[in-house]
Amino acid sequence: MRYEGTIYRPPGEWKSYLLQVTVGCSHNTCTFCGMYKDKRYRVRPLKEIYEDIALARQYYGSVKRVFLCDGDAIAMDTEDLLAVLNRLWDTFPALERVSAYAGPVSTLRKGEEELKALREAGLARLYLGVESGSDGVLRAVRKGVGAEEMLRAGQRIRQAGYDLWVMVLLGLAGRGEASREHGLATAELINAMEPHHLSALTYMPVPGTPLGDAAACGAFPVLSSRETLEEVQILLENITVKPLHFTCDHASNYLPLKGGLPEDREYLLDLIHRALNGEAGIRSEEQRGL
Fold it and tell me: How far is the CA of 211 from the CAs of 21, 27, 136, 290, in angstroms?
């Protein structure tokens, strides 16, 4: 298979065939993200994509899952994306699911009928980087939308029938009252959006990004392990969506947490309580790759 630059995918797509349909991210201005800074966004020609699908068929035989890379495949022209989906389902008889990242701006640019057509063509799961429910935080990190537009993007994904997986970033607002407001606003947005899955990752400064450079010089306060756990606690105490598959077990997280809400809420809160009181181990910076 041919890939340009570093390829990223959600942890849950580790069994998927990774098909690069776009290079980079169509937005690519978020101050915290360094994933696609070495790439200039472009859509790969259909001829190349079809060739890669044929190569995958020859190499793998068949696949059950496909993840469309890079950071915002939903930004592709709808007709081209439909053509790719049709080619995938025609090529792999055992295919069960096709997934992709969805940027909020790109999602809102699609008409409702376009989103439904893509869903009907076999694009089943979309991963939305919500990051925060705070309007101020979203605008500060240059996400491209505010809280209201982010909510609308998530709701449109759900209404079109997708399996919506949302990701938020702990510590993105900094310390003190800002952290608490970030946690509460994020829980409120999640409650309104009603995703099927929620992953809480921890913000890790990336050198060379605006927010990473601000953290390096002390202009942006990075949360301690305790403060991060307190922010997770705020999330869990205030999320009312049910049922919700909740994960906080990414390599960036201090304390691996995973469970279903509401049934595992008290269990997860107890794990946090024990960690805050020194009764449970948390990942060291070395274990988290810092």
Answer: 29, 16, 15, 16
